[in-house]
Amino acid sequence: MAGWTLGIETTAHTLSFGLVDAEGTPYPAASDTLRPDQGGIHPREAADHHKDVAAGLFQKVLEQHELGINDIGAVAYSQGPGLGPCLRVGAAVARGLATRMDVPLIGVNHCVAHIEIGRQQCGCDDPVLLYVSGGNTQVIARLNGRYRVLGETLDIGIGNMLDKFARNQGIPFPGGPKIEQLAKAYLEENPNPDMEGLQLPYAVRGMDLAFSGLLTAAQRLIDNGAPLNAVCWSLQEHAFASCVEVAERAMAHTGKTELLLGGGVACNQRIRTMCEEMSSDREGASFAPPRMYCIDNGTMIALLGWLELKKRTTSLEQSAIDQYLRTDQTPIVWS
Ligand code: AMP
Ligand code: MG
Asked: Would you say residue 1 has pLDDT above 80?
């Protein structure tokens, strides 16, 4: 039976094909991430990468789950937000496959997909979401039928900040995991660390956040001779504490008791621990999906497509991408 939904993710540096079955059960994705040796990601180069690997990766995900093309009953893709050239490749592949297989097409909201895979994986119902990824940093909650952004970064995403700081030290993309290791090494050497001489700006502005000042100040500490692993530790403590503070205020204002982490930075054990501590202090609970569903993945796109397909499909005319699609533009038509 052609009951599987295929999900195609191409918002940034990762191309990923994932699947859910007819009951909406998620299956691991096949992914390929462009990792430039030096410098940041150029949207055109990422788009070319996605084009080059798309056909092989699609075959791979089918083989991985012993499926044939006729098992696919619908095609979902990230319609936004993200980098225009990358999104266009995903949309083109999705249109092509849906037309060729003669199955419904559905464009979905990438940020909302992060929330829904987290809810599904963690079994939480109505969480405040702390969405911390490369390009996005948002605190989100469901209110009146939509996921509302209660606070967000006013400049760069937290992951981009970590990646840029790492790149300046000669650490290749993605820098976040390496910064985590260096910070951990610092704590092993200094079990009772002192912030003296390692202070950084702490940019919480109301419910919003900012990270570019933190990036500049951390670089200045390095330039003034502070050890790299000490600065990595301080950088994580400051950046994560500001996110957790806004998340806590969101929980207090909305009265919600669950916190859900999402996005690539949610792979970090330190931010997971900080969220758990804050939530348990409030007699709430903090959840984080497995790492493969924190980073960008096609499975979350397939899952949201499967949820929304009960109510709508996307015609070819409506299938254009939207780089600036907002989290609160998507009505929640599922439960
Ligand atoms: P995404 O944009 O959701 O695909 O996530 C990619 C971002 O997650 C990049 O900025 C990575 O540096 C970051 N990231 C991945 N793993 C970790 C980690 N363990 N700690 C901090 N950041 C991470
Ligand atoms: Mg993402």
From this structure: no
